[in-house]
Amino acid sequence: MQVSDAHGASATSYAYKASLIGSAHRFELTDDGLSWHIAGRSGVWRYDEISAIRLSFRPVSMQQHRFRADVSRAGGGRIAILSTSWQTAALMAPQDNGFREFMIELHSRMAKAGSRAELTAGLGRKTYAAILAFLAVLAVAMMALLIRAFLIGEFAGALFIIGFAALFVWQVGGFMRRNQPRSYSFDQLPRGALP
């Protein structure tokens, strides 16, 4: 969302509710830097003070299409910005367009400020490798169960295993593809890590 301050300068703002209880987390891109208001605390981080941004795809049970940006500051401090907002006890609303526009504008302002921030997307390399190893073991186990089901003539069980594996690959495959560890530049934000 674009707003104008008292001096007529344009600022981009974004807000979301991280939980039902408590106030919204509010962020604004001003001429001075990234202004944030979270749980009664606030501050402004100059664009050249931001040391790292990690974009990732982080679905949860209530919202399967959720993205996250972790913004770190040189000298300490980290802010998480989510693409969804709690509406009711059973509803998380996506804010895809607002989140995407805010992230694009943040990167643009950081580039103009000459930022040398580390820009990464996806999971950490060690975490990603551990998940891949676990999935490989799981695939071997599922294949063994499938072979066993065919050998003993349990075709209904084999069909169930095939259906379960297809659903699992569809769900987990998308998560793994979007969260593949990679670096990116200010002018080429990763598509899979943004809505």
TrEMBL record:
Positions of transmembrane segments: 128-151, 157-176
Domain of life from the UniProt record:
Bacteria
Q: Which UniProt keywords apply?
A: Membrane, Transmembrane, Transmembrane helix
**Descriptive protein name:** Bll5862 protein
Source organism of this protein record: Bradyrhizobium commune
